[in-house]
């Protein structure tokens, strides 16, 4: 399994400097990761650094709380696209979801999808705050609103991806949407487990450790 092509090489810390982002981009090129995932202020920098490579640029929107106004999310997404983003990872409005306002949650997602057109939209559910039924509902809302992916976590909540959350997401929309597992994925064994469950993308800041340990395991088992 070529793990590198599943990985969104991620750096979203508040303290990330332009130099850190350039390093992230060069690592992504070296290890042939699918994408880098960065905050919106760094999209232009990342796009420029990756322009002669196959690595995509994913930008987070409404991050990490999802509680921004729809207009703010749309504006941020439009600027990301203008700066060269290929994909948008937006946080859904968790409070409105928990208030059982599916129409408003769907409108929020649809507004961003409408703003970015054919580019890939991943909707971050932040599953650590949701019940199993809320995860199911969030998946269906994201599907109805035109999303391309549902994603487990920001990595900034109280927990990251779990087997249970991923299983619910795959069962609920795995035949129509792609799934991204993120948050707390630090090793090849965990990454492979999620991929085998049906995940199409892994969001992680430990991509290098994951692919190098995976290669080491492969080499050790090649006689």
UniProtKB/TrEMBL annotation:
| Record-linked SUPFAM superfamilies | Aldolase
Q: What EC number(s) has UniProt assigned to this enzyme?
A: 4.1.2.4
Q: Name one GO cellular component term.
A: cytoplasm
Major localization listed first in the record, in broad terms: cytoplasm
Pathway(s) of this molecule: Carbohydrate degradation; 2-deoxy-D-ribose 1-phosphate degradation; D-glyceraldehyde 3-phosphate and acetaldehyde from 2-deoxy-alpha-D-ribose 1-phosphate: step 2/2
In terms of domain of life, where is this protein from? Bacteria
Q: Which Gene3D superfamilies match?
A: Aldolase class I
What are the UniProt keywords, alphabetically? Cytoplasm, Lyase, Schiff base
Q: Which InterPro entries match?
A: Aldolase_TIM, DeoC, DeoC/FbaB/LacD_aldolase, DeoC_typeI
Where found? Answer: Cytoplasm
Which BP terms does GO give this entry?
2-deoxyribose 1-phosphate catabolic process; carbohydrate catabolic process; deoxyribonucleotide catabolic process
Kindly give the Pfam families that the UniProt entry links to this protein.
DeoC
Q: Which residues form the active site?
A: 89, 151, 180
- Molecular functions per Gene Ontology: deoxyribose-phosphate aldolase activity
Known catalytic reactions: 2-deoxy-D-ribose 5-phosphate = D-glyceraldehyde 3-phosphate + acetaldehyde
Q: Belongs to which family?
A: Belongs to the DeoC/FbaB aldolase family. DeoC type 1 subfamily.
| Function, as annotated | Catalyzes a reversible aldol reaction between acetaldehyde and D-glyceraldehyde 3-phosphate to generate 2-deoxy-D-ribose 5-phosphate.
Q: Which NCBIfam families does the entry link to?
A: deoC (TIGR00126)
- Name of the protein in its database record: Deoxyribose-phosphate aldolase
Q: Which organism is it from?
A: Aequorivita lipolytica
- Name of the gene: deoC
């Amino acid at each position: 399994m070529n793990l590198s092509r599943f990985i969104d090489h991620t750096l979203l810390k508040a303290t990330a400097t332009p130099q850190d982002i350039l390093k992230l981009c060069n690592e992504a090129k070296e290890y042939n990761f699918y994408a880098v995932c960065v905050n919106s202020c760094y999209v232009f920098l990342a796009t420029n650094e990756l322009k002669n490579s196959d690595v995509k640029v994913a930008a987070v929107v409404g991050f990490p709380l999802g509680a921004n106004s729809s207009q703010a999310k749309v504006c941020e997404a439009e600027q990301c696209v203008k700066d060269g983003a290929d994909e948008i990872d937006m946080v859904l409005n968790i409070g409105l979801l928990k208030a059982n306002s599916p129409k408003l949650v769907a409108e929020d997602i649809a507004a961003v999808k409408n703003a970015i057109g054919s580019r890939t939209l991943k909707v971050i559910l932040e599953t650590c705050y949701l019940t199993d039924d809320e995860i199911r509902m969030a998946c269906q809302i994201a599907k109805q609103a035109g999303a391309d992916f549902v994603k487990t976590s920001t990595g900034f909540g109280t927990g990251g991806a779990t087997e249970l959350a991923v299983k619910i997401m795959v069962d609920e929309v795995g035949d129509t949407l792609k799934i991204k597992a993120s948050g707390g994925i630090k090793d090849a064994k965990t990454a492979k487990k999620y991929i085998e469950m049906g995940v199409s993308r892994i969001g992680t800041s430990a991509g290098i450790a994951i692919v190098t340990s995976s290669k080491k395991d492969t080499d050790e088992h090649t006689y």
